[in-house]
Amino acid sequence: MPIEWKEQDGVFHLYNQRVSYLIQIVHGKYLAHLYWGKRVHTIQPNSILSFKGRAFSPMTESKDPSFSLDTLPQEYPAFGNGDFRSPAYQIKTNDGTTITGFNYDSHEIFQGKPQLKGLPAAYVEEDHEAETLVITMVDSKLGIGLHLYYTIYRELDVIARSASFEHLGSNEVEIHKCMSMSVDFHHSDWDWLHLHGTWARERYIERKPLIHGKQSISSARGASSHQHNPFFALLSENATEEYGETYGVSLVYSGNFQASIEVDSFETTRLSIGINPFHFSWLLKPGETFQTPEALMVYSADGLGGMSRTFHRLLRTRLCRGMYRDKTRPILFNNWEATRFDFTENKLKDLAVIAANLGIELFVLDDGWFGHRNNAKSSLGDWVADRKKLPQGLNGLAEYIQSKGMKFGLWVEPEMVSPDSDLYRKHPDWCLHVPGRGRTLSRNQLVLDLSREDVCNWLIDTFTKVFNSASISYVKWDMNRNMTEAASAKLPPERQKETAHRYMLGIYRVLETLMKRFPKILFESCSGGGGRFDPGMLYYMPQTWTSDDTDAVERVKIQYGTSMVYPAITMGAHVSDVPNHQVGRITPLQMRCHVAMAANLGFEMNLARLNKKEKMIIKREIGFYRQIMDLVCFGDLYRLLDPFKGTDSAIMYAASDQTRAVVFYYKTLAMPNPPFLRLKLRGLNSLAKYQINNDERLYLGDELMKIGLTIPLVKSDFFSKVYLIQQMVD
Ligand code: DGJ
User: Fold this and answer.
1) Residue 116 in 3-state DSSP?
2) 551: Cβ below 6 Å to ligand 1?
């Protein structure tokens, strides 16, 4: 049983073979956090918590002067009646105060994992894969039940948490804060790591020791954002890529979020993640329930690498859905960087002929095919093919592409509207705005108000028509600005601060409906590259365009940072022209291919300009990618050398049965008279013999993992080499 209830001690023990999570009910009503970490077998719960009355720590229980909420490690703490640290939630009641008293009421333990209504979440395929504990706390004065959900997976070191407020009382309240999880660690000797960036420079890694007080990352942009990813990790100070305790927390949400860590004067570390409480509130009426998004909490005793591999397995197999979940993805060509808006049907057809000859499987038509969109200034909202560019419509082009043996894919940006569009002229109130105030443009566009049911329904109908209008196998769902004037014409004043979250519920409903209607379409999400690379989007669309930066050197870092949480099968990676559009750098075609083939390989260059030699290289690399794509998509990732720390970097993917692996090595700048570099591989069978790139010489797994694979000395910048390692059977 992965969840045990020890009634005499008031202790819940959630465990699998490697992880334990312990909660204790104290004084019959408070929920204390005892432990989260490596599996413990026997516990003496009463020896875990230590109590001592401290000056200025309020005495919450008059009969027990040593007890204070201010120093109690808790599961879902409140503010205002003893604990001065950051609360997990705050509710304004009808008397205008924010004092609540949620006490333990009951609990339930069952096999399986319930889904969250209207929200993306990790799932189980069979009930025996996980067990769930629901603890119900009740504020009897308010008549509100607080349900805390904990699911522990049997085979994955993951605990999924969320909370819901169920209003059974009689006066409406306002929820001002409701995090998805909160945990108090008993010490503060941690580093924290998170992913930050901006457009074209997403998910750079930052690791810092914790300081006393609060440290946090967040987004208030109406999207998870390029700037911060809804993820952070705590690492023991000596933890490395492969060793040491690491705790990763990721939020299954695509909107405004906050992740915060607070170290107090007694070295307790409180961490939480959830909807950003800034500019948020939710009116909860009697009879209604508010459900938070889900937080995924991973424990690893094997450093960051162990944490990432658990996230990868979880997201790939129990968060992503649909027929593409367990399939390698088609090698695609996207016309964006080749043509931008400047294309005709004939130009696309010429590109398609070359693409097909190179072995490309999917031809994606990007922005500019609808309305009169010859630049980024118009037509979002008018989703009808531009007959000047496409005289035979989308279907005519799709049929041509198919006649060349490829599938056809299409770019859309459904959530946006251009002021210069028929849609905006007809429905000027359909965008987020505040009446009587300016509507701030970004990329010349406004955001449709998806907190409105009618706008969402229109989107569903419109894109059902678009996706039925041709034989479409793939859709790139883009979103190219963040929210301003995040208010809705449909909501009353007291609900305006609900707009951003209602928007997320709206977009999730639209995506769920379209995904179900078009189960054969492979959806790729995009937000100016990786501005919404989060588990929420991956629940509906199993891959994301990683970044608009396709420069090979930059991409090595971006993909490395992204791999902290997200598996390669979720990352779109394309080979583009040089000089690179974002940084002007010229890198060899081979390196560009080697970087892109460490994820879902695609091409986004002007194929019409390729010479014979370049075509030969691309054909060769596509052929090689076909040999390794299963490893990239389904293998275990080991990060061998960190591109943020030097000019050499390397990663590898190993099959879980240890029979095959692929190693990617990249050198960005050459060094004069360099030392030899030996890459110590991982994930192989120590005693098995391996062949590398079909060379005759055999290597023992032990040798490759302990002594290492020697990288050749090469006098060149932008050098890359890929090693396919295959076990030989005697
Ligand atoms: C932003 C995307 O990231 C690009 O790949 C491209 O699709 C453009 N939008 C098109 O407007």
Assistant:
1) coil
2) no
Q: Express as a percent the part of the chain with pLDDT over 90.
A: 98
Q: Is 248 buried (19+), middle (13-18) or exposed (0-12) by CB count in 10 A?
A: buried
Q: List 177's β-bridge partners, or say none.
A: 90
Cβ atoms of residues 253 and 218 within 8 Å? no
> What are the start-end ranges of the E strands in 285-355?
289-291, 294-300, 332-334
CA 653 to chain centre: 20
Q: In this predicted structure, which of 33-42, 321-330, 341-350, 443-452 has the lowest mean pLDDT?
A: 33-42
- Distance (Å) from CA 418 to ligand 1 centroid: 15
Helix intervals (H) in 263-302: none
Picking from 22, 483, 493, the residue whose alpha carbon sits closest to that of residue 276 is: 483
Alpha carbon 342 to chain centroid distance?
A: 33
Q: Whose CA is nearest to atom 4 of ligand 1?
A: 528
**Nearest Cα to 75, choosing from 11, 121, 18?**
11
Residue with tokens 């929820």: 175
Residue 264 DSSP class: -
Question: CA angle, 99 as apex, 95 and 101 as ends, to 5°?
Answer: 120
**Does pTM top 0.85 for this prediction?**
yes
Residue partners of 716: CB distance under 8 A and separation at least 6? 667, 670
- pLDDT recorded at residue 46: 75
Beta carbons of 362 and 524 less than 8 angstroms apart = no
Test site for ligand 1: of 337, 415, 525, 526, most ligand atoms within 8 A of the Cβ? 526
